[in-house]
Amino acid sequence: LLTPNEMGNIMEANEKMGKCNTSNRTIIAWVEEQAKLCQPDEIFWCDGSESEKVLLTAEAVDKGILIKLNQEKLPGCYYHRSNPNDVARVEQCTYICTETRDEAGPTNNWAAPKEMYQKLLGLARGSMHGRTMYVVPYLMGPLGSPLTKVGIELTDSIYVVLSMRIMARMGDVAYKHLGNRDDFNRGLHCMLDVNPERRYICHFPQDNTIISVGSAYGGNALLGKKCLALRIGSYLGRKEGWMAEHMLILGVESPTGEKTYVAAAFPSACGKTNFAMMIPPAHFKGWKIWTVGDDIAWMKPGPDGRLYAINPEAGYFGVMPGTNYKSNLNAMKSIQKDTIYTNVALTPDLDVWWEGKDGPPPKECLDWRGNKWTPESKEKAAHPNSRFAAPMINNPMLAPEANDPSGVPISAIIFGGRRADTMPLVFQAFNWIHGVYVGATMGSEMTAAAAGTLGQVRRDPMAMLPFCGYNMGYYFHHWIIMRKLIKYPPRIFHVNWFRKDANGEFLWPGFGENMRVLKWIVDRCKGRANANETPLGWVPGPESFDLGGLEGYTPEKLSQAQTINYEDWRRELLQQDELFMKLYSNLPKEMIFQRELLVSRL
Ligand code: GDP
Ligand code: PGA
Ligand code: MN
Ligand code: MN
């Protein structure tokens, strides 16, 4: 039996649930104004409590938005199916709305703020009739960090509320961080009728405002992630002297306990989550990889002259296909409880399945659209961009520093793309400016994470093409300027896990074996490994790259993976020029010089 005191607490909690829970007048006035516009039947103020989670989850199940999975196998886990037209980010519907077109730059869609507000307010007007507007306060970053930002997302999607709870530090904690200030990000998210014709993801960096309508997909609708942490974040970073990057952060621990932190930018669905959670092969006895973050890094020079990074998120929004106990054990362990699975297949015993999961496929299941599926079916059971949203505390290798307000000092920055040819497995840039050039000219094959043509190589500078909230030319300039603010800059590297031979086989085993590349990178940062100079940069010297215990893999294969093909590089340079031409009026001259130096070395 509950004591009268406990009983009283529960009754008090129920009484308060959903009621206004802040005394910040700016927030209250803004919420009222938005409610007047959207006209929801009800406003529900979220506080992030457990009892609130129970209530909202039950409601989502009741409405068929979530399906409760087999609680014996997957406690606290739920299943969600998107509208089939709404399964990825949509770059053609994503806008940066600055006063001038030049501020957004040639790589972003631009619209004048006034016109876009008018259009969006028109769409939002009355759109929450018969629905509830949830007020979702959240923090990007640990409580008390100078880098942490507060956002408030208003949404009429309970799936978004429950996902935000996983992906960010959600609830009262955000009001605590904000106090009476008014510098919170204003986010409005309306489902409308989930119609691609009425889908807009719009950023107003000068107002610290985001309006997203017509999509419930993570990158479009969980506003803390891509919209605030990257697009608005990069804009603020330039203004305030820090960097918002599409990077994982990991800690490498040596057998002697030495810890080295590394950040890496790969485009969406190119291996960030896997690399951040990597488990070193048996040959690397005593080495450990700790995950700080798997998608986003906010970085600022620290008082000791090094570059410090925090992961602003609190959860992982990971690609499902290909995830298994062999490829990513820590991700598998992270998704056994309190996880939302989206657009995977559902088995008759309420378990989930996806292509590349361990074990045989189910004899029969429902695919991501809800249609009957058998192993004979031609279509995929899980959507190629099906995702899990899991709390980072589930990760057995979560770095304790993930909650440290001061972040971790970064020794190396790694750029990488998905390239079947041209790009070697690994090289090190000669210096910071050369490294900026290497990042700025990154190319990668397009993946299912964004709607569009798969497999086509496109320029994706620093993996930020879809996420830079301002002119890409200024962004390169910001990278160059940052060098002056960092006394001990990280070394810069480029990797490619995806190079293939003439038979279409990967030239590098990847996944845990990437530890071998990472070890060389760490050793380079500490001045312990030798390297040979090539036109592209420094590559591992013969004795400094450890292939020990890698059965069947020969040094010849490694040198094939490392080949610099001059024919390929001529083509590569022409492709790089396309982006440079587009940016030409704002392209820092350093980038042109670096290009000329590369040409002459080649
Ligand atoms: P993210 O979206 O950048 O976080 O990428 P993920 O880590 O989720 O990986 C995306 C896809 O790339 C998945 O299908 C992975 O199985 C695959 N992948 C990740 N790392 C490697 C690797 O080292 N080698 C190969 N061949 N595939 C990889
Ligand atoms: P990803 O994140 O980088 O893990 O794929 C989602 C996205 O970028 O859309
Ligand atoms: Mn991402
Ligand atoms: Mn990821």
UniProtKB/TrEMBL annotation:
Reactions the enzyme catalyzes: oxaloacetate + GTP = phosphoenolpyruvate + GDP + CO2
Names of required cofactors: Mn(2+)
Residue ranges that the Swiss-Prot or TrEMBL entry lists as coiled coil: none
Main localisation: cytoplasm
Domain (Phosphoenolpyruvate carboxykinase GTP-utilising N-terminal) ranges: 30-238
Organism of derivation: Pedosphaera parvula (strain Ellin514)
Domain Phosphoenolpyruvate carboxykinase C-terminal P-loop: 242-597
Pfam family, any one: PEPCK_N
An annotated Gene Ontology molecular function: manganese ion binding
GO cellular component: cytosol
Protein name in UniProt: Phosphoenolpyruvate carboxykinase [GTP]
PROSITE patterns found in the cross-reference section: PEPCK_GTP (PS00505)
Family classification: Belongs to the phosphoenolpyruvate carboxykinase [GTP] family.
Source taxon at top rank: Bacteria
Binding site for Mn(2+): K226, H246, D295
Signal peptide: none
Residues annotated as catalytic: C270
The encoding gene: pckG
Binding site for substrate: R89, Y217, G218, G219, S268, N385, S386, R387
Enzyme class: lyase
Subunit structure: Monomer.
GO biological process, one term: response to lipid
Pathway where it operates: Carbohydrate biosynthesis; gluconeogenesis
Keywords noted in UniProt: Cytoplasm, Decarboxylase, Gluconeogenesis, GTP-binding, Kinase, Lyase, Manganese, Metal-binding, Nucleotide-binding, Pyruvate, Transferase
Subcellular location(s) per record: Cytoplasm
Cofactor annotation remark: Binds 1 Mn(2+) ion per subunit.
